[in-house]
Design a protein that fits this description.
Layout lengths: L1 E5 L5 H8 L4 E5 L5 H7 L5 E4 L7 H6 L5 E4 L9 H6 L3 E3 L6 H17 L1 H9 L17 E5 L3 H12 L3 E5 L5 H6 L3 E2 L2 H7 L2 E4 L13 H5 L5 E5 L8 H10 L2 E6 L18 E3 L8 H20 L14 H24 L4 E10 L7 H13 L11 H7 L4 E6 L7 E9 L2 E10 L2 E7 L2 E5 L4 E8 L4 H11 L4 E8 L5 E8 L5 H8 L4 E8 L1
Parallel strand pairs: 1-2, 1-3, 3-4, 4-5, 6-7, 6-9, 7-8, 9-10, 10-11, 11-12, 13-14
Antiparallel strand pairs: 13-15, 15-16, 16-17, 17-18, 19-21, 19-22, 20-21
Helix pairs in contact: 1-12, 5-7, 13-14, 14-15
Length: 526
């Protein structure tokens, strides 16, 4: 039974999705103080939080059974992702669920700045009629500079283009082709500062973006320009922003986020040139439902041992590649595990080859799954796709990869080779009828579905061997669910793979190994 602790309020739909998981128990315990959280966390396999719960290194350390932390939202600055990665704990979030909500708020703030809507509302509510005081400006024809053209920045760009705005972006990660698809000009930061009438920020808060808009960058903005921040507090130097507003260098600002929340005694709150909202970016009914469901799906996927779509410390899988990659993640782990259990000689290098459709997509998730399979049977720590690269580096494992768009008999084929002093040992698998199949092992062509305990023998092809092994297993009340045999040629080397309902007892394995024509025998779990 996997126990899930939810410490902050998520949508009922999200809780229902969590509870619908197989073999899970969900506890909702809101507003836990730090000491209580540390005391109860050892009993849980998953933790679901929003932004208030601080998942620090000591919290990670206390979660001795923790497999995944789910952040119901996009930002993860309240989670020590590095500490989680070291422990092999997956961190999942819901970055796509509030894209539209934040983008629409950004456009709302932009229009509020242009027409001074909040200020004129307050004026009228206080009994004044000041039409001439609130002269606005049209957004049509103005230049909007987007710092960050990710999911939210792209949604803002689409909407701004609908208002006939000119949109430029600075995002060193996004290709100019992607920007062109959105009708957005890709420029340098310097160009964006000089050209933009309004700048809107859409980047995460990391060390490289802290105080990204400091006194120097704000000073280089166009005189009278406006600044919008609905991404993360701490990206804007608030003292520098205040000085630029007071001096008249900037025409105004709109803030939904602050370096300290709530923004107690912050002079920007209440400033006549600033529109302020209390971190409302994701606060729509639709976004909250999606946040809860997306987070639940990510947590449950991690508990099943799958790679969630939105894993912060595991590779993101693009939607167009998901249908190709997803089945091979489990198969990669099984091939790695099989290889590690059968190749007992020192390995100089592991080589992965992706053939067919696999060769056309980013295969990093499959590589991590193979690493997990290779390491999990010999590591004293729990190995996941999150910490597998760290453990592999510590052990000095050498991994190479190559892709081949051609494959003779299958749409895709995943090949794992272990290079030893005696040559390469090769294992291959594919997907057939929506099931993983291992089709080649150590040079023998076979075809079996991994997952059950296996008894694998390397033997000389002689009459009666299969029957004798079956008799030994029957005498020990071990049931055989499937049998597969591959051979080089009649009466020469052969491999037999028996799928069993339970692992073969060690005493029976010793009996099998003692058979004259059996060279090697292994009890394997994939």
């Amino acid at each position: 039974m996997n126990r899930i602790l939810v410490t902050e309020k998520i949508s009922n739909e999200g809780l229902d999705a969590l509870r619908a998981g197989t073999n899970v128990e969900v506890d909702v315990r809101l507003n836990l103080d730090k000491d209580t959280l540390l005391a109860v966390l050892p009993d849980y396999h998953a933790l679901v939080v929003r932004s208030e719960t601080k998942v620090t290194a000591p919290v990670i350390e206390a979660g001795t059974q923790l497999q995944v932390v789910g952040r119901a939202g996009s930002g993860v600055d309240n989670i020590d992702v590095d500490a989680a990665t070291q422990r092999g704990i997956m961190v999942v979030n819901a970055p796509a669920s509030n894209n539209v909500a934040v983008a629409e708020l950004t456009i709302g703030l932009l229009l509020g700045l242009a027409r001074q809507i909040p200020q004129s509302h307050v004026s009228l509510q206080s009994g004044k009629w000041e039409r001439s005081k609130f002269m606005g400006w049209e957004v049509r024809g103005k230049t909007l500079g987007l710092v960050g053209l990710g999911r939210i920045g792209s949604e803002v760009a689409r909407r701004a283009r609908g208002f006939e705005m000119q949109v430029v972006t600075y995002d060193p990660v996004v290709s100019s082709d992607r920007a062109n698809q959105l009708g957005v000009g890709s420029v340098t930061m310097e160009e964006l500062l000089e050209r933009s009438d309004i700048i809107s920020l859409h980047v995460p808060l990391v060390e490289g973006t802290r105080n990204l808009f400091d006194a120097d960058r704000i000073a280089r903005m166009k005189p009278g320009a406006f600044l919008i921040n609905a991404s993360r507090g701490g990206i804007v130097d608030e003292a520098a922003l205040l000085a630029a507003l007071d001096s008249g260098h900037l025409g105004g600002a709109a803030l939904d986020v602050y370096s300290q929340e709530p923004p107690t005694n912050n002079p920007l709150v209440g400033h006549p040139k600033v529109i302020t909202t209390p971190h409302l970016g994701a606060s729509t009914r639709e976004a909250q439902v999606l946040v809860g469901i997306d987070t639940a799906e990510g947590v449950l996927a991690a508990l099943r041992g799958d790679t969630p779509r939105y894993a912060v410390n595991a590779p993101f899988i693009a939607p167009e590649a998901w249908s190709v990659l997803q089945p091979y993640i489990g198969l990669g782990q099984q091939l790695g595990s099989l290889c590690m259990q059968l190749v007992v000689d020192p390995v100089r290098e592991y080589e992965l080859e992706y053939r067919g459709e696999l060769a056309a997509v980013d295969t990093l998730p499959v590589r991590l799954a193979v690493l997990q399979g290779l390491l999990q049977t010999t590591s004293e720590h729990r190995v996941t796709p999150v910490n597998a690269p760290l453990i592999a580096r510590e052990r000095g494992m050498r991994i190479s990869e190559r892709s081949n768009p051609n494959t003779e008999n299958y749409a895709s084929l995943l090949v794992v080779r272990a290079h030893t002093a005696d040559g390469a040992r090769e294992f291959s698998g594919t997907m057939l009828r929506d099931e993983p199949h291992i089709v080649q092992a150590d040079g023998f062509w076979v075809d079996f579905v991994p997952g059950d305990p296996l008894l694998i023998t390397y033997h000389r092809d002689r009459p009666g061997i299969i029957g004798r092994v079956g008799t030994m297993l029957g005498a020990a009340d071990v049931n055989i669910s499937g049998m597969y045999v591959g051979r080089m040629a009649p009466r020469e080397g052969a491999m037999m793979i028996l799928r069993l309902d339970e692992p073969v007892p060690e005493a029976v394995l010793d009996q099998v190994r003692a058979e004259p024509d059996i060279d090697l025998a292994y009890s394997v779990v994939t």
